[in-house]
Amino acid sequence: MVKRGRDRTPHIGIYGRRNFGKSSLINAIAGQDIAIVSDVAGTTTDPVKKSFEITGFGPVVLVDTAGIDDTGELGEKRVTKTMNSINTIDMAIIVTGENIWGEYEEELTSRLNDNDIPFIVLSGKSDINQPGGEFTEKVKEATGKQPFPFSVYDKDAHENIISLIRDTIPASSLKLTTLVGDLISQGDVVLLITPIDVEAPEGRLILPQVQVIRDVLDNDAVAIVLKEREADAFLRTSGIKPALVVTDSQVFVKADASVPAGIPLTSFSILLARQKGDFASYIKGTPAISDLNDGDRVLLLESCTHHVACDDIGRVKIPRWISNFTGKKLHFDVVAGLDNLPAGISEYSLVIQCGGCMITARQLQQRIRTAVRAGVPVTNYGMAIAYVQGIFHRAVEPFTRGGTRGSEYL
Predict the structure, then answer these.
(1) Which residue spans of the chain are classified as CATH 3.40.50.11410?
(2) For the domain bounded by 6-173, which CATH number is listed?
(3) Helix, strand or coil, per DSSP, at residue 157
(4) pLDDT tens for residues 26-76?
(5) In terms of C-beta density within 10 A (0-12 exposed, 13-18 middle, 19 or more buried), how is residue 133 classed?
(6) Whether the model pTM is above 0.70
(7) How many CB atoms lie within 10 A of CB 261?
């Protein structure tokens, strides 16, 4: 199970050759032994995560990776996992040593640049080998960056590296945009329709519902939470006209019938899609559902791992709804967590991404980027459900009215 909180926190990947001091760097800047350190090359195997607080920025997750120069059959697998971790990070630190800069570092920086990942370059073990002039010029020519000398024994250097991290990591990776703040005003009532089904954890609300409640409160508005069967009576007898209604996508049809046309209606999943995902690509890609043909393959991306219920939203309900809507015989594949996407992404006719409540915006966008680049239409759970149930335009209309973020999409 993906851990809550930590995987929505900005991730910093530590990369470099074996035994160049990556783990020692993590231990030094965090001030504790959080990574295995030894003089034996290849000590780190799978990427290892550790939470850390950067003063003046906030919490981050440091990701210690295996050496980019690992060898042998097992070593190649380690390198593959190291390179795949680039899809999950917000920033990278490249640790060099012994005045070496070669094909491994060139391949790494190429991957980082392709994925728009900012990075810094450290010259490790500088107490033994200070970065030479030729090496420095080579790094600057290749990356445009000055390698920063680093030694675990230089306490001042630790603070300087923290400053470099603070200056390099994108501020947007920590501060997400509001879910509903630009749709409501102080004192507004937001009605949240939250069905309690077999997928809801006992005694708790699901994370997207909690996030929206918190965002409503942060914007000095009032959140009213009820189940779908209570919505009709509440709206009929209370005399309250909500500024916004947010529903679980699974009861879109019921909510659409209950909520008068003059009241904006959307879903928790669509709010997350706008906050974290490629909303423009979702808007553009959703109507591709109508273009599906017999034999087409559809890829569903779940960004967390969970117990699969008999009527699971991603694995059962969405495939059923889309098949019924199109009348076509389709093939559905599911990738859970942050596992690698299938190699033949271009063979899919549609990719459907979940809301991504458990991961960072960078991780979510990296998940669908491959499909977007390949020209494969992408959509989101909530938007796909709204489309096949005939209420897509109403569900996205709160974001396309003049004056709200997203008004350029339709």
Answers:
(1) 278-388
(2) 3.40.50.300
(3) helix
(4) 877 776 554 444 444 545 556 778 887 777 667 888 888 989 999 888 888
(5) exposed
(6) no
(7) 7
